[in-house]
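Hi P.,

Sorry for the delay on this. The queue was packed all week, but I finally got your sequence through. Input first:
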Amino acid sequence: MVDPNTDTMQYISSPTIIGGSDLITGKLNLVEKILLNELPGQSDLLSDAAVRLLQSGGKRIRATMSLLSASVFDENLENSLSLAAGVEMLHTATLVHDDIIDDSLQRRGRPTLNASLDAKLSVLIGDYFFARAANLVAETDNLDIMKQFSETLMIILSGEVNQQLSRWQVDRRSYFDRIYAKTGAMFVLAAKSAATLANAGNKSVRAMEKYGRYTGIAFQIVDDVLDFTGRPDRLGKPVGSDLREGIFTLPVLLYAEQYPHDKLINSIRESQDGDHPSIDSLITAIRNSGVTDQALAEASDFISRAQQALADLPYSPYVDALSMLGDSVVRRFA
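Then the structure:
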């Protein structure tokens, strides 16, 4: 375990500083060290993969949320570090499997593991990171936390299965269920488990659960907007990549609701072909229709609901920092 007194090391991977994280910079440094810690028997390949993934420019938003939440309730430092590292490692594991499922060769503008490794090895590396995440969470020695972790993992994997089964479908309810499973559940784990770990009481635990849920949903909506409005060199993937895979996100759903007789979207839905000759035209139409602004407005509404949930907590600078963190989720768009 990292010595909590060595609070001065600098970020190894220099994740982007986000709203509210300046209060816990030292703790984030320690989480970074835990994530890159080599365990006995860990092969060079696993160590290299960990460095490569963890230095790929992530914001550590889940670890930040976990540490800020723990700080609200003055939780034991060693346990809060293990929990935050476990949540971040879980996120890293899901990225590995997502890239394999999507056959992605780039993420954040850098080659993915499966771009250079055999697919079987990439799967095993992802599995190892899932196990490492569980091991880190188990270091809290808290059965409720370990149960929350396992339930979150089941939600994430079930959501991935459902996403594959709901391709080419226009269904707002399925969309929000899907993004909760994809992103919201892990944000809930980061916020709620920190409160649980501190024995914060039912009211505070429920407040953190709401905060994590709404912030995670907003985060994914903004990601889905960026899939249409971002630059390919920054996205590390083609614009509209989800649509090309038959995954209808909020901008697509809003467009379909406003233009139910649009020939572009209807012909692509009927063909279920991500290489349909009209796909680029549909992406341009979505970008120019104003639905991305409407989606961002929905994301902002979810952030407002997340911030309202924080009103049930006793005031502290860390509560303010969580509110700032929520704002930064939407500001990513800029």
